[in-house]
Specification:
The protein has helices spanning about 5-15, 50-55, 85-90, 110-120, 130-135, 140-145, 180-190, 200-205, 235-240, 265, 285-295; strands at about 30-35, 35-40, 70-75, 95-100, 125, 150-155, 160-165, 195-200, 220-225, 245, 255-260, 280-285, 300-305, 315, 325, 330-335. It has about 325 residues and is α/β, with parallel strands linked by helices. Bound molecules: ligand AOF and zinc ion.
Length: about 325
């Protein structure tokens, strides 16, 4: 029996939840009887019913469940979270066969859903490869398996490998990439929880760090404090979203993590306490490089313009990025 088209349908359904399920994963499920889909569902929002529940509820003739196969993009859960365990619903409905895209890495599930189903005599099969089912929920995967937020790094450099010219505090930052790259960046900003920059970048550029050119909320600014580059009060109070400051002397009235900002292990796991599951790291070079060298660059987005420059601020050394596209006059590469 070829399960692929029903598993693909689970992925399509899961995608209906894009943008609203966090911190939960996107999940889709279908009920199939004699090769025909008789029920479908997806997880819409944390706290609301899971995909399997929605799919089972949508079946008109529940008697057919006893001769049906349930397909789900993620292993049915085995625990009481905000909602009860899906594996118990499946066994209580006497569904004889379950096909799963990938196991659930959540410490309270992690094979327990499958074990419950098998112990109730249910035949359980898996997709030939879990890859696309895991990639669907990259952020959830990093959060669960690495116990830290997902980090997406982004920068623009020119053909000479510089992210900026060498400049004084009075001179403005150089625009490297074009308007399409800016749109893409704002699209990224609208999809993350936090945006991380150094206080040096904040000091010189006074960025607004908002999502202005695309749909979505502005992320929470996270600022790594360096003693050499103090934060300007007017800039801090102008930010649309209250920032989180990481460093030794957090300005009065602001929240953050009191630590040595250069020691990533000290503060990275604590970002979870602020509900930050996905963070866009926008620079400068030293911070980007420390994330790459520390094995924390889960994803990299790099724009390369065709301009050349004699001298400037060097871009980070990135691993080879295989996915490429043309965005206006810029080359867009991502991992
Ligand atoms: C499923 N089907 O559709 C989803 C699952 O707090 P709760 O009860 O919503 O549980 C959240 C956890 O359940 C989440 O972290 C993940 O491990 C799993 N999500 N499981 O069987 C679903 N969304
Ligand atoms: Zn569940």
């Amino acid at each position: 029996m070829d399960h692929s088209k029903f598993l693909t349908r689970c992925l399509q359904l899961a995608n209906y939840g894009r943008g609203t399920t966090s911190p939960n994963p996107m999940v889709g499920a279908v009920v199939v009887h004699n090769g025909l889909i008789i029920g479908e569902g997806y997880h819409r929002k944390a706290g609301e019913p899971h995909a399997e529940v929605m799919a089972i509820r949508s079946v008109e003739n529940r008697d057919l469940l006893k001769q049906s196969t349930l397909y789900c993009s993620l292993e049915p859960c085995a625990h009481y979270g905000k909602t009860p365990p899906c594996c118990e619903l499946i066994s209580s409905q006497s569904i004889p066969h379950v096909v799963i895209g990938t196991g659930d890495p959540h410490s309270k599930v992690d094979g327990k859903g499958v074990a419950h189903l098998r112990s109730h005599g249910i035949k359980v099969e898996f997709a030939p490869s879990p890859h696309k089912f895991q990639r669907l929920n990259e952020v959830f995967w990093t959060n669960m398996t690495k116990n830290r937020p997902q980090f997406t790094l982004k920068w623009a450099e020119n053909a000479s490998g510089y992210i900026d010219r060498t400049r004084t505090a009075e001179e403005k930052a150089m625009r490297i990439s074009g308007p399409l790259a800016a749109l893409r960046t704002h699209q990224l900003r609208g999809s993350v929880d936090g945006i991380l920059i150094s206080s040096k970048t904040a000091h010189f550029d006074l960025p607004s760090l908002t999502t202005r050119k695309w749909f979505g909320q502005s992320p929470t600014p996270i600022i790594l404090l360096s003693q050499d580059f103090p934060l300007k009060r007017e800039w801090l109070s102008s930010l649309e979203v209250q920032p989180i400051i990481i460093g030794n002397k957090i300005p009065h009235g602001y929240s953050g993590i009191n630590c040595n900002p250069r020691n990533l292990e000290q503060w990275v796991p604590k970002l979870f306490d602020f509900g930050l599951n996905h963070i866009l790291v926008e620079g400068g070079t030293r911070i980007l490089q420390s994330f790459i060298d520390g094995g924390l660059a889960d994803s990299i987005h790099r724009y390369i313009s065709s301009d050349r420059l004699e001298d400037g601020v060097s871009a980070p050394n990135a691993p080879i990025l295989t996915t490429t596209a043309e965005l206006g006059n810029d080359r867009y590469e991502r991992s």
